[in-house]
Amino acid sequence: xxxxxxxxxxxxxxxxxxxxxxxxxxxxxxxxxxxxxxxxxxxxxxxxxxxxxxxxxxxxxxxxxxxxxxxxxxxxxxxxxxxxxxxxxxxxxxxxxxxxxxxxxxxxxxxxxxxxxxxxxxxxxxxxxxxxxxxxxxxxxxxxxxxxxxxxxxxxxxxxxxxxxxxxxxxxxxxxxxxxxxxxxxxxxxxxxxxxxxxxxxxxxxxxxxxxxxxxxxxxxxxxxxxxxxxxxxxxxxxxxxxxxxxxxxxxxxxxxxxxxxxxxxxxxxxxxxxxxxxxxxxxxxxxxxxxxxxxxxxxxxxxxxx
Length: 307
Prior knowledge:
With 307 residues, the chain is an alpha/beta fold. It has a single domain, classed as 3-Layer(aba) Sandwich (UDP-N-acetylmuramoyl-L-alanine:D-glutamate ligase), CATH 3.40.1190.20. Helices cover 32% and strands 25% of the residues. It is built from nine helices and 15 strands. It has helices spanning 31-41, 56-67, 135-146, 166-176, 187-194, 200-208, 248-262, 268-272, 280-294, and strands at residues 2-5, 9-16, 22-29, 46-49, 51-53, 70-71, 76-78, 84-90, 93-99, 122-126, 151-155, 182-186, 214-218, 224-228, 231-235. The strands form three sheets. It has a nine-stranded mixed sheet with strand order 6-4-1-10-11-12-13-14-15, with helices on both faces. A hairpin with a 2-residue loop joins strand 8 and strand 9. Helix 1 (31-41) crosses helix 7 (248-262), helix 5 crosses helix 6 (200-208) and helix 7 packs antiparallel against helix 9. The longest helix has 15 residues, at 248-262. It is globular and about 55 Å long. The two termini are 22 Å apart. The model has no long low-confidence stretch (mean pLDDT 94).
């Protein structure tokens, strides 16, 4: 089983009201939530570790996970409020304003985390859950203590507008890197993490030097590349008529993890034996899955039978 560790929140999606003014409709979201849903729809055994409120929005999130084949017994429930992300769409591209202070997701502490079952073969981290304390340090703790014998993948999915302590955030990512087998970033994330000097290959090498076996870099319509110390490989983006890009990267990540599952490579030991070329089938599957998501509104990943 894959355990997605991080935020589950409510995206307030803008819609045109009957009076011509903008209204906002609550949709389940969050980078880690989206990936968990996508994995569940792809028939990959998956669970979620997250702080989730008992309020109306929290019930909406937990119900959505269950309805999409995601195990919910690792959720940390509380009476704190649910994180809200106000979404603004411009030409199909999303920007976000977050309301997260004191939320159920943000306030998760190491003592709240239940024991991770032996059935969990892989851990997936990322998103805004790695930004704000105490939850960010809690997930870093889980990565360090539970990642030693399990495959670990991380996608920081950097939202610069959400970062209040850049130095602490960069230090946290650096502490997690040695425990990661796969780090996935967009080309923009990679430039932010490394300072943007040199080629993408140079920047990827700088991240590899911090410990991961592979660095996957997505470049939107230009596809994705994977780098290792032994070489690199690339795959094209899936063909699609883009409606919006909400959840595209999250779905891509689910496709990569699902692809590794199909290859029988969902373990730290198996991934350690792979080359960059060996990851091409998993990246291609990720691109295929993401192409469906961008072809329809919102973070709405495909079910396996749609592929």
